[in-house]
């Protein structure tokens, strides 16, 4: 499988290394706005982000991965490119443990030592970072990022675009709303609404715009 990556920063380096380790694919190009035009240098295609659509449509054997850590930017690029889901590769590191009863969406990246248990459903363009744990019956929506060693107990739901920070823990049955940030090391013991930042043990979240209090402790 020939793969081109959108983005050429630190996250892209890790994905490139993962693809090399899987042995199932080969990175043949990078699209980043560092480049002004499409060029082939040492057999590697390079060009601006917008050019990825044309290059992939002209070479349908190519698969794409949005190799950018920012959740909103990933969504914006996917929307801009307008490519079908089957044009995106799903990358799973060989050391990751994925239940045969779990589902992983297109464009998603599952990094070393991550675990996805039975009947978990992981959406499209998700990042399951190093050592992240997705327990049974979790629902992880599109464009979520579970940072290294984030641990989600059973039946947790994480809505679109949310980031769960390094080492954060979420107890069973919790829902975390869309485009929320859970801070590193936080322990989430109550549902968290959309558009918030939740930090601490137990986690406290800043209120959404228009609410009266600045911080709510949801014990």
From TrEMBL:
Ranges for domain PglD N-terminal: 2-81
Binding residues for acetyl-CoA: 145
UniProt site positions, description: Increases basicity of active site His: 137
Residues at the catalytic site: 136 (proton acceptor)
PROSITE patterns: HEXAPEP_TRANSFERASES
Gene Ontology molecular function: transferase activity
Family matches, as InterPro entries: AcTrfase_PglD-like, Hexapep_transf_CS, PglD_N, Trans_hexapeptide_repeat, Trimer_LpxA-like_sf
Keywords, ordered alphabetically: Repeat, Transferase
Binding annotation for substrate: 69
CDD domains: LbH_AT_putative
Protein name: Acetyltransferase
Source species of the chain: Alteribacter lacisalsi
The organism's taxonomic lineage, starting at the top: Bacteria, Bacillati, Bacillota, Bacilli, Bacillales
């Amino acid at each position: 499988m020939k793969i081109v990556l959108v983005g050429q920063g630190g996250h892209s380096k890790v994905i490139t290394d993962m693809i090399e380790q899987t042995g199932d694919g080969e990175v043949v190009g990078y699209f980043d706005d560092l480049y002004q035009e499409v060029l082939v240098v040492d057999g590697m295609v390079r060009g601006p982000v917008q050019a990825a659509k044309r290059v992939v449509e002209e070479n349908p054997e190519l698969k794409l991965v949005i190799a950018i850590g920012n959740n909103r930017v990933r969504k914006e690029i996917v929307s801009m490119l307008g490519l079908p889901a089957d044009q995106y590769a799903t990358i799973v590191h060989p050391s990751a443990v994925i239940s045969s009863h779990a589902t992983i969406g297109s464009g998603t990246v599952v990094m070393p030592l991550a675990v996805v248990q039975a009947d978990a459903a992981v959406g499209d363009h998700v990042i399951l970072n190093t050592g992240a744990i997705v327990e049974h019956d979790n629902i992880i929506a599109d464009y979520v990022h579970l940072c290294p060693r984030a641990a989600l107990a059973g039946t947790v739901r994480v809505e679109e675009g949310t980031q769960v920070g390094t080492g954060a823990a979420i107890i069973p049955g919790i829902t975390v709303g869309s485009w929320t940030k859970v801070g590193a090391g936080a322990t989430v013991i109550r549902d968290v609404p959309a558009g918030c930042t939740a930090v601490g043990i137990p986690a406290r979240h800043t209120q959404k715009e228009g609410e009266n209090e600045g911080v709510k402790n949801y014990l």
